[in-house]
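anyone seen this seq b4? input:
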Amino acid sequence: MSKRVLSLVLGLILIMGLFAGCSAGKDEFPNKIITIVVPYSPGGASDTVARLYAQELEKAIGTSIVVTNKTGASGAVGLEAVKNSKADGYTIAYMPVESTMIKSLGLTDITSDDFTFIGRAMTIPAAVTVRSDAPWNTLEEFLTYAKEHPGEVQVGNSGTGSIWHISAALLEDNSGAQFTHVPFDGAAPAIAALMGDNIQAVTVSPSEVQSGVESGDFKVLAVLGEERSSILPDIPTAKELGIDVVAQGWGAFAVPKDTPADVVKILEDASKTALNSDNIKNLLAERGFEHAYMSGSDMDSYAKEQLDKFSELIPKLGIVQ
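predicted toks r here
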């Protein structure tokens, strides 16, 4: 073989090697923009947390991330869009607690089982709140009265089938109390109705009643979280009071169920860094939410438990949207 031919052969081998390297690099995840779908409108808590998560995830994973909002049907529209997307890790869903409830509410056929979680960011406990001049000073007194006077206590919530509605329903189911549930178009009008003495209680988030507590208009009898609220640290949890009820919203992130395991692992590792960043923790603290990181695999198990619980409870209570 002549030197000229040998040079050409060696050159071709080198070029082929370079192309092979480029091809291998191209196949590595991630190599293009990742989209996070928030199933609610811009500006809310879910949207705010998702956008900060996107910024932190960009740093941890090394690619650009955009956030888009797909609203409708209490989150079902956005979640369905992610479920039906290509399972390649490039489309991520913001997953609220309602993802374990919307099938039972008759809004969609999808459930949290259609996704693989990559991490949880936060929890938002329900706060059982009454007017400061109410005759009940403890959760036990409140539940005893509602048990002895069925239907007399009107409890406001942010809408039929919302997590705050479910929170009060869980208290009923556990204690034997019987409320009259009064749905409103969001927590704010429910709180206004309590302020005006038109209802007797609300089950909403601690941050939503904090100003009323500070002004002396409201008192919180208990929070229904796994732990005490960081902004109402003196208020006990229901479990501390011997009432085994945990009812809280949560926010997590997930990808379609069939996403390859190696891609899920990359996203889960990066999410662990992002969701435990100081920026995320500080934002949650400012909003009155509880930083409650949970790994993707642990969240898969937790969501399954929640799905089973709500799939049984919601039909039992006859709650429909």
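DSSP finds ten helices and eleven strands in the chain. The chain has two domains: 32-123+249-317, 127-241. kinda curious what u guys think
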